[in-house]
Design brief:
Distance between the termini: 52 Å
Number of domains: 3
Shape: globular
CATH architecture of the largest domain: Up-down Bundle
Order of helices and strands: HHHHHEEEEEEEHHHHHH
Oligomer: single chain
Structural class: alpha/beta
Strand content: 5-15%
Radius of gyration: 21 Å
Length: about 425
Amino acid sequence: MGAAPPGTARTDPPIFDPAAFRLTEQEAALTAQARAFGQVVLAPRAARWDREASFPTSNYHDMAANGLLGICIPAEEGGLGAGYRAYCLTAAELGRYCGATALTWNMHVCSTLWTGALTEDLEMDTATRAEHRRRRRIHYDRILQGGAIYSQPFSEGGAAAAGTVAFGTTARRVPGGFVVNGRKIFASLAGHADYYGILCTEVREGEDRRSRRDTLYLAVPKDAPGVTVEGDWDPLGMRGTVSRNLVFQEVFVEEDAALMPPGLYFQAATRWPHMFITLSPTYMGLAQAAYDFTLRYLRGEWPGTPPVKRRMYPTKQIAVAEMHVMLEQTKALWFQAITEAGPDPTKEQVLRAWAAQHTVMENAAALAAKAVRTCGGQAMLKSLPLERIYRDARCGSLMLPWTAELCIDRIGREALYEKGETD
């Protein structure tokens, strides 16, 4: 089951059974591919990235070779053509085996998901859409032909990443492109991505006020003059994300660096809010991994540990039953939310998306904690994956733009107020 060690011949069952959850043929095939790749390639390497707090470079080389870097690039442009739900389900399977790889892969994939399938649902005039498709092809070719890795740093230490104020990182137009200035913190893939997909605010001469409507989404090459990576990286969990700080000082990028036309990111954030729960698949996978480990450990089936069964004790059985109920509740709500993803969701669908995000992030940590207590002291050894799963799972509730706290805040407010109502 989850995070199977090297040498095991056991094939893990899917998190979401294709027949039971009525998956499409593409979804079933992609999740099977991810599950096999996760067991054979990701799981044996995961401890290294965690121990060293080093980026999983070799995993990305393998994902370039098997097509996963282009999972959401449209099929007609050479990619695998996965839609939103297909991507989320695939990412959850990868998250079972290496949380750091799945989480950073999300930030790469979103550069293609947002510019691909998502933008097809947004309003653009004919000329703007044609130019957008021409430009995104440049970025897609870098990924498909050269194995380029993109990142997507949000955080700046303020409220911008939560979507309440304009980004402090700025871009001003100059002949031939833009000049970018600013700083991103907790920038996953810092120093390892080939292009940083920077969300920044366009500033104009003579205008002092910055607006979220003027958000630009620009791909900044890692070796562009003025780009620096700073700070150490030694966190509790998700250590392989290498989320150091990025600094941009008078960094010039060409006009074709635009991943979206001006104004389109704001339209996407307003009309396609499910774009902000693509971090949750990793934690759905970690929740499954914690449960999987517990079953195999209590059955005496985890390789490298004594074949001692612990399943006969009522306390263990009760704990597993409680974990199973929590896992199934989490899966059901999350699956419904990712199935509903699309433009202009209803109020109830947005409330459900926030509830799903909160539930996955909180329950992944709760399941991992219960797994540790149920399996006992030996399960906390670093030679076993549960200790890493436990630490990685605790990071989910902190993830912007929809932290667990923000989800609760928004659910309470939006459930009680209709649009335009005040007290």
